[in-house]
Amino acid sequence: MSRPKVAFFDFTSCEGCQLTVVDTLQTHPELLDAVEIVQFREAMTEKGEDYQIAFVEGSCARKSDEERLARIRQQAQIVVALGACAHLGGINAIRNRLPLEAVVNCVYNENGDWSETHPYGRPRLSDRLINVEPTAKPIEAIITVDAILPGCPIDREEFARVTRQLLQGSQPRVPDYPLCVECKFKENVCLFQRGQVCLGPVIRAGCGAICPTYGESCEGCRGPISNPNMDSMQSVLAEAGLTADDLLSRFSMFGTYQMMKLE
Amino acid sequence: MSLRVISMDAMGRFVASSRSEYRVVGPKPLHGQYIFGDVESPDDLHLNYTQTVIPPKKYLFPQREELLRFKSGDGEIEPVFDAPPTILLGLHTCDLHAIRLLDRVFSSGHVDQHYRRRRDNTLVISIECLRPCSRHSFCKSMGTLSATDAFDLHLTDLGAEYTVDVGSEAGEALLAKHAKTRRATDDDYQRLNTALAQKWPHFPYRLDFDVSELPSLMRTSYNSPLWKDLGERCLACGSCTNVCPTCYCFNVQDEVDFALSAGRRVRIWDSCQLDEFATIAGGHNFRKTRAERQRHRFLRKGQYQTDAFGLLGCVGCGRCAQACLAHITPVDTFNTLHHERSGGAARPKGGAA
Amino acid sequence: MSGTLIETLGESLYLPQTARIRDVRPITAMEKLFTLELPSGLTLDHNPGQFIELSVLGVGEAPISISSSPSRSNGTFELCVRRAGDVTGALHRMAAGQVVGVRGPFGRGFPIERFRGKDILFAPGGLGLAPLRSLINQVLDERGKYGRVTILYGAKHPSELLFKDELAAWKERGDVELHVTVDRPDENWTGNVGVITTLFARAQVYARNTVAVTCGPPVMYRFVLMELVGKGIPDGNIYLSFERRMKCGVGKCGHCQINHIYTCQSGPVFSYAEIKGVQEAL
After folding, report:
1. Which residues are CB-contacts of A173 (< 8 A; sequence separation ≥ 6)?
2. Interface pTM (ipTM) of the complex?
3. Residue A132 forms beta bridges with which residues?
4. A165 neighbourhood in chain C, CB within 8 Å
5. Is residue A231 within 8 angstroms of chain B, CB to CB?
């Protein structure tokens, strides 16, 4: 592939992964010589519809999203799920456990029908919910995905590496082993030993164990490895004093969609 | 060679002086544990330390190491050797035994020049262990509580002074150039012998059998029901092998620039405990289950390495036991297998002595 | 530069030499035959059954068995490569004139001197013909030194048969017995149908003087061994070539271990007698 055309798309998300891409363009400006970016709302005004590689951030959460995703899939030779929302459903999927009305009440409280901040006056919130799907989904629930860039947000170096692998024509691979590997490489003192808990033993590496390195528990934004030993993980967390409910709430931060599928 | 004596103060000056020629590496505190790191000043010296998270192996066989640099178009390739003169200071004797095994592995058959060059540029200063450094260590059972011949200098803490056992000419030269020492007197010998004699009762024997039986025990343990149990508990996180001073399995990967024209080939620590370790390109995995992989790990430690290199693959440091969240430990594993074979009841699992 | 390729590892075990692709020939939808040429002065000097580590610089390195026989080396050698991973995928996209890296040859090949005067029964399955072709052609090039030569070759589908022109040539020769079978025939297939073991009934074997050689997918060995042992061929005369993840090729990286055995060093060719008691082998 000689200087492939690349487009970035955002669905329901905070756009933090695209910001990380912008960051990467600054630390690796040579990336701009290797690809031609034709659409990237976060960084440019042009909107080219002729592209080979599509990076998609965000979960599929609105009724119109499915059709838009299908169009992207039809145009792109390669679709990459960019970040936890696109890869897992992520934080957006936390609401999947509640009816939409309950979510609205939870977020905007009972006065939520009258949004003071809306720029076009005061549309009824229930009207605006017409386009919202009751469940937020990873994009893979709608279209075939060729590669994933996990994380909340994505890892800058991993984005660079996966892009290079795509340019080479290789199947991009992200680690499929637990975070503990990278954490041990860095010689971090295990958080369990410091009296904390961490999801690292069942979560996909690739972030350089960034949270445990700064003393924070892994919350699983990169999703579980393909073959996690959940039974043993449960025993480990139980030993650290976590109840079954604590455990579920830990995994539900990024894994609600997956957990609900298993139930 | 000769026995010298160095004072605590002189030890600090020795480190400061050596730094003009060598990268000096020693144990340093971190979040209640120790790690090996650069000793920047005499204040950084912590020779009375507990077990480090990762062994000093990382200075001979780094987590990530560049092997080659290349330009892909014309196929220009050159090897990379990164072997700065280094002093590994304050190694416990288990780590010394481990380096002995690594030396054999990388020097026999095809000699690994990348390891060898680094090793040849490294001076090892070990220290006698007078008290256990970890509740998981079982060095006494593994026969690694005394120094091997792999050191250049070997220290024993006598309170206000260290005796220095000179193990090589390079060690002797280092001492002569950078340290102020004195020849050991009869009194020093006596104090040394007392310290050595008094240390042993502080270390528990933790294997329920003699370690010389370990290879034969492992040879008959392939079909033990224990492996299934370990497989159910194992998280396949690779921590046991990543903290192991004798593990050296690696993966090799290419990294390229965005123009795809130049790059490097690096080797990175790998672990036989990870899912894909024995998977071939077509997708077949020759060690699919965690049970098979744990079995492979322990057979390698207790039998395969002894068969191939004449040294046990486990030095009893206990780092893997410390790192394992599922409480899989070599002591429990070896003892359970021993009791299975001798028909006796296994000791309760998980209890550290 | 002069000498053998393996001698060039004196500087670094991991340093490949460049080899130029002289020819690329598609064989099936999945396999291509690459003819490689070493820099002048360097020779491969391999035994049938050995492998090389092939680099596509920037993508990585993969172990590939050598498909050509030493008797036909002619300054070049051949690799029959299936597109299975990143390295082989990238290699498949390369063309004559481009450059790859090679290290080796590694491992222990077939002890061909022990085959002299014996009948030889070849039983390749699928891609297993790629390494055995090196030995078969070596034997055919010094045909007089061996007794009966029988080749039993099984593939999944007619479209997956390798080296069809050579199969035809072997069939033509009066001094080779060749039987080919496929699991799933297509409408044009007129030959045998069934897995490779269905061919064994056709082979007349004087067991005491026969050496059997087999290579194929992991699932195949048990069944072929049952046939070979059933025919009374001594365990020490049955040779198997194994595929494992041989990352370094020099007995260090650990990926190819079968119990205590480094496949890249002691293998990839083993006699059945050697690995019969090795639990992870089969």
Report:
1. A165
2. 0.93
3. A62
4. 86
5. yes
Question: Phi/psi zone of residue A215: left (φ > 0), alpha (ψ -120 to 50 degrees), beta?
Answer: left
* Domain residue limits, chain B: 3-62+81-202, 211-247+272-342
- The sheet that has C76-82: what strands, in order across it? C60-65, C51-56, C99-106, C17-26, C31-37, C76-82
Q: What SS3 state is found at C111?
A: coil
User: How far, in Å, CA of B93 to CA of B149, rounded?
Assistant: 10
pTM of this structure: 0.93
Q: Calculate how close chain C gets to A35, using CA atoms only, in Å.
A: 18
| DSSP label at residue B279 | B
Domain range annotation of chain A: 5-92+137-168, 93-132, 180-262
Cβ atoms of residues B82 and B118 within 8 Å: yes
DSSP string, chain A: --S-EEEEEE-BS-SHHHHHHHHHHHH-TTHHHH-EEEEETTT-S-B----SEEEEESBEEETTHHHHHHHHHHH-SEEEEESHHHHH-GGGGGGGGS-HHHHHHHHH-GGGGB-TT-TTS--BHHHHGGGEEEEEE-GGGTS--SEEE-BTTB-HHHHHHHHHHHHHT-------SBTHHHHHHTTPPPTTTTT----GGGBB--S-SHHHHTTPPP--TT-B-SS--HHHHHHHHHHTT--HHHHHHHHHHHHHHHHHHH-
Looking at the DSSP assignment, which residues form a beta bridge with residue A17? none
Q: Which of B69, B280, B285, B303 has the highest number of chain C CBs within 10 A, making it the mutation to test binding with C?
A: B280
Pairing between β-strand C119-124 and β-strand C31-37 as defined by DSSP bridges: unpaired
Query: What would the two tokens of residue B352 be?
Result: 């550290």
Each residue's pLDDT tens digit in chain B (353 positions)?
689 999 999 999 999 999 999 999 999 998 889 999 999 988 889 999 999 999 999 999 999 999 999 987 777 899 999 999 999 999 999 999 999 999 999 999 999 999 999 999 999 999 999 999 999 999 999 999 999 888 999 999 999 999 999 999 999 999 999 999 999 999 999 999 999 999 999 999 999 999 999 999 999 999 999 999 999 999 999 999 999 999 999 999 999 988 888 999 999 999 999 999 999 988 899 999 999 999 999 999 999 999 999 999 999 999 999 999 999 999 999 999 999 998 765 555 544 43
- Determine the 3-state secondary structure of C38 from DSSP: coil
Q: Answer whether B227's CB lies under 8 Å from B295's CB.
A: yes
Q: Taken in order C256, C260, C262, C263, is the CA torsion positive or negative?
A: negative
| Domains (range + CATH), chain C | 3-106 (2.40.30.10), 112-241 (3.40.50.80)
Burial, B273: exposed, middle or buried (Cβ in 10 Å; 0-12, 13-18, 19+)? buried
Residue A177's closest chain B neighbor by CA? B274
Paired strand residues for B279: B285
Neighbours of chain B (3+ CB pairs under 8 A): A, C
Q: What SS3 class is residue B65?
A: strand
The answer to whether residues C24 and C94 touch, using CB atoms and an 8 Å cutoff, is: yes
- Which residues fall within 8 angstroms of residue A245, CB to CB, at 6 or more apart? none
Q: Which amino acid is it at C55? A: S
Tell me which amino acid residue C156 is: K
* Fold of the CATH domain A5-92+137-168: Rossmann fold (3.40.50)
What's the CA gap between A244 and A255, in Å, rounded? 15
User: What residues of chain C lie within 8 A of the CB of A169, using their CB?
Assistant: 89-90, 93
Residue A216 CB-half CA count within 13 A:
8
- The minimal CB distance from C88 to the residues B251, B279, B281 is found for B281
Positive or negative: CA dihedral B312, B315, B319, B325: positive
Q: Are strands B153-157 and B161-166 parallel, antiparallel or unpaired?
A: antiparallel
Angle (deg, nearest 10), helices B169-178 and B8-18: 100
Kindly tell me the sign of the dihedral angle through the C-alpha atoms of B185, B190, B196, B198.
negative
Strands (E), B94-177: 122-127, 153-157, 161-166
